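How a chain folds remains the central question behind the approach discussed here. No coordinates are needed to read the tokens, only the vocabulary itself. For completeness, the protein is quoted in full, as a sequence line and a line of structure tokens:
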Amino acid sequence: EIRPRRLPSGIIFSSRVYSSIPPHPPSYPIMKSVIFAAAIASAAAFAPATTGKASTELRAFESELGAQPPLGFYDPLGFLDNADQETFDRLRYVELKHGRISQLAFLGQIVTRAGVHLPGNIDYAGHSFDSFGNGWAAIEGPNAIPQEGFSQILIFVGFLEANFMKDVPGTGNEFVGDFRNGWIDFGWDSFDEETKLSKRGIELNNGRAAMMGILGLMVHEKLGGELPLVGQM
């Protein structure tokens, strides 16, 4: 005979069903062990990966100039993976040169858009410097510099690149990107080592900011609008 039985909670079970319930709850020590093992497995998924040879080699450049707060050593594209000192020096040389060019370009954008131009004419035909466009408009468009003038600019830049904007061995240059080459100084030798490192770090950071800045100006020039300090694009 199956007789209903009322539990203290008010729920009615048949004696057959009720009798099938285990007399003792599961072993709690076993449950705790299972939970602990699951937690360990979850934590292992977020543990840092084992450092290999590439990570060890990268540490050689973590103390180089430019690895500074807030980013510290930052190489998201992996240019320094398996790189040696010669490769690093080449990349630093390119970074410094691009930074210097970008600083001049960004400053040129601000100055010319503020209405400051060289006085006089750019050619014998009577075209004044301020008659040409600013930014990319000076290269392409109805107010662009004539092709002959643009070619002269490229030739002049090539002359500087081939004869001055390079490290000449044996001239006393102290670091990669030192273009003094034994004949221009501006008081650099009067600074102590700490001041020299500080000034080199400032130049490096300003160059990095200028590269982002001139790229942003080029994009906004195509988008149009107006920017603070720069004006109408």
Remarks:
- The CA atoms of residues 95 and 124 lie 39 Å apart.
- The two ends are 94 Å apart (CA to CA).
